[in-house]
Fold this sequence. Notes:
Blueprint: E1 6-11, E2 16-21, E3 27-32, E4 42-47, E5 53-57, E6 72-76, E7 83-88, E8 99-104, E9 109-114, E10 124-129, E11 135-138, E12 148-154, E13 160-165, E14 178-182, E15 189-195, E16 208-210, E17 216-220, E18 230-234, E19 240-245, E20 260-261, E21 267-270, E22 289-293, E23 298-303, E24 315-320
Antiparallel strand pairs: 1-2, 1-24, 2-3, 4-5, 5-6, 6-7, 8-9, 9-10, 10-11, 12-13, 13-14, 14-15, 16-17, 17-18, 18-19, 20-21, 21-22, 22-23
Amino acid sequence: MKRHDYLYIGDGFDNTVKTFDAESGRFLGRFVPSGDNGLNGPRGLIFDHNGNLLVTNQNVLPPPPPAPQNGSILKYDAHTGQFQGYLVNPNDPNAPFAPRGIVLSKQNILFVADIIVETGLNGEVRTYHGTTGVFQGNLEHPPGVQFFPRSVVIGPDGLLYVSVSNNPTTAEGQLGGRVVRYNPKTGEFIDVFIEGDSIPDFNRPEGLVFGPDGNLYITSFRRDPSDTDKILIFDRKGRFLDKIDLYAVGQPRAFAQAILFGPNGKLFVPITGPGPVNGQPLGPDTGSVRRYNVKSKTFDVFVRPALLGGPLTEPWYLTFGKTDPATLAYRHDKEESSDHDHHHDDESSD
């Protein structure tokens, strides 16, 4: 018997993790309540090998004193959403400063993209033991390039792929970027897989996933108002194949930070902004989740936008119960992680 699955999305507006029916998109409520145990800027989401939900927490606006506070990795029970403790405490000297995407390897090593250490300084890809949270070290930086990692995924070849932007605190750093590769077992730097500084459409890459077709899909942001935000598609050798524009020039803007393949080979794309995330008024599509057919580049609206009463305002990263925590691929035959008795602090029939 096919068991039901759920979609979990972090909402940076009210600092929750919200749950949806994976087939219909029906909103099922807040799986992690607002600000639970310091949740303040939820980013990467995965289920670990014990079935716990791991959430990277940026601590974007910490309480007084106003000094910058490290981020953390929070752990929640997969069945109830109850807080299980810190996997990585913000007081740990090796805690990430601004964590984004995460993956957990089969060897139980958690890879965390830490976009920036301090203003103007390169970030890190940090590694931790997936059960104890003990720091395992930082991956070496690629030679001769800026290194502000945003997200991670383990590819079909077993290598760790990291999306890297240029310095986000500078004007010129808003353009370009790259994807680099590592051996996840040894931490060895392999190569620059995609050098985006030479690709006009490749700007501030973040969410990256491999599709069922074996191609790599990456979010990219517009150069200027005459451009569009989009998803770029590359083959297994790093060659640019195609793109999916999220809107046409002249239409209201819509951009996505993270993407994920789900049931029936569809690509799920939460529209993060414009809105609170970049200090702009809500766009007409912000807060929606689109479900794309990547062959036809068409989509249906899986979750309606905030301005039409949808429950999300600033959706970031997402995971299904059946998402592989390493490759982020959708596992059709996985049953146990999605067979949860969900408890929510509210319910909705939306």
